[in-house]
Amino acid sequence: MKIDELIKKDFSGCISVVKNAEVVFEKSYGFADYYNEIPNQLNTKFPTASAGKFFVAIGILQLVERGQLTLEHTIGELLELDLRQIDKEITIRQLLNHTSGIPDYFDESTMSEYADLWKDFPNYRIRQSSDLVPLFIDKAMMFKAGEKFQYNNTGFVVLGLIIERVTGQLFDEYLKANVFLPSGMIDTGYYELDRLPKNCANAYIFDENKNEFYTNIFSVDAKGTGAGGAFTTVLDINKFWLHLIDGSLISHKSLNKMFSIQSYNGYQNYGYGVWLDKTEDGYITPYFQGSDPGVSFISSYNLKNDIIFTAVSNFACDVWDLRRAFVEFEKEINF
User: Fold this and answer.
1) What confidence tens digit (pLDDT) does each residue in 7-44 have?
2) What is residue 139's three-state secondary structure?
3) Which CATH number do you get for residue 48?
4) How many domains does the chain have?
5) pLDDT tens digits, 63-99
């Protein structure tokens, strides 16, 4: 079997496999613009939804290393917000590992459709992280801070606000200067949907009633926030992993903490801003992922075998099933 045979015929997006810093497989499928039949390419910029949380976590750890923050700093100390019912003693550490209990503007444990957020609050108003504050600031805590793991989008919006408070820059400007450009990720950034640069893929949703595809421009934030929404390419993601692992973005000490299990939801491990697969022999495979209407993304780094796998789709194809198939393929042929 070849890698190509793992990929379903209706897949739209890009896939990349790199081993020992050498490209093993890279291919694009489908259309960036479906109705004009403009094909996806390896340098096509795709939206990645919650994958951006990983970048935000790295930005926070950089500020910790520079002495501008500590993991035990609280949101009450850092934010100039009337937090109302929100616990002022929530720490950066708890935000990073999803144990804060802060009210989530999109609670994935009870809400299934992200697009439902914008029925009463127009998505075109979301142009920076602070624009999301009205969606959670009047809500009560979900549980006591530190009590348990629960995946939380608000937590990373707040981390984005903390980056802005500490640095005086918008969080995406900080990430561009301190994560993307140092990694050579020239095709990665946070873009407004009504001002997309060239080579960006539209993200498509299928309307079963009309039997046609439509774009997600009214279903997601007009511009990404600390919770996610970066656009990137599979080529840039490969550069990102290599610069992260070699210590160019954060120290190996910080990287070890990031890749150490900080919380657990009953079946998945989490570090700081990144998911962690742990094998029976104790090896960790970090991965980050994202899902929005019309968007799916996953990228992992098998540290034991030095393999980067990345798959992104602009038709919300099942990249998770594809990665599982690749992992089994990897085992079968001792890749």
Assistant:
1) 999 999 999 999 999 999 999 999 999 999 999 999 99
2) coil
3) 3.40.710.10
4) 1
5) 999 999 999 999 999 999 999 999 999 999 999 999 9
| DSSP character string of 92-103 | HHHHHTT-S-PP
Stretch (H or E) spanning 309: strand 307-313
* Whole-number Cα distances in Å, 273 to 72, 153, 226, 280, 328: 16, 11, 11, 23, 26
Contacts of 213 (CB under 8 A, 6+ apart): 34, 204, 205, 206, 207, 315
Strands 212-215 and 204-207: antiparallel
Identify the domain containing residue 55 by its residue range: 3-332
Tokens, residue 268? 């998945």
pTM: 0.96
| Residue 3: how many other CB atoms lie within 10 Å | 17
Place of tokens 């098998």: 302
